Amino acid sequence: MEKILIKADARADVGKGAARSLRRAGMLPAVMYSEGKSTPLTVEGKQLTKLLFSGMGEHSLLTVSIGDGAGEHSVLMKDYQLDPVTDELLHVDFIEISLQKKINIKVLVDIVEKPLGIKMGGTMEIVRREISVECLPTDIMAAIAVDASHIGLGQSLYVRDLIVTEGIRITTNPNATIIKVSAPKVDAGKVAAAEPAKKGKAAAVVKEE
Q1: What's the average model confidence in pLDDT over 32-48?
Q2: pTM assigned to the model
Q3: How far does Cα 98 stand from its chain's mean position?
């Protein structure tokens, strides 16, 4: 797994005023939780924003390196706060984990091959974009690649159909739907208009006999 390094500094100043000052300087306030204690941090806003909106932030093992000599810490992104108007990232919470203990985490589902049913005029609906798995932190997958090319009209792909690597156990309901492909909708108006025409033609033939 690729190592995602987050450089951080311990911060003493807390509160809304200090947080606003950090954001104006391009930095973000953050907190790392570990074994009942919390450590206020300062991290680079641009890096965290890019990581979060790429979809990887909540689904990846991260390494926080604290510049005061506190070393590197393996963490997951526990929570974050966005501005309700601008969607600007305002705050991030990390939780430190052990690399030797299994965890439950959500993993993205990536449809890499589109269903056959789409080529036949159908419509694909993505019902579930992520699933929950249990694994060691070092086995976390960035995403589960799915080949849905065999899914035809009126068919669905389920969690039980997914293939994961050794060491990963899917904990989401195996009967949950990932995607489904619906057949093309029939224009009821055209069908209704066509039916009388057929009946009229048949009646005319009978009359001639």
Answers
A1: 90
A2: 0.73
A3: 23
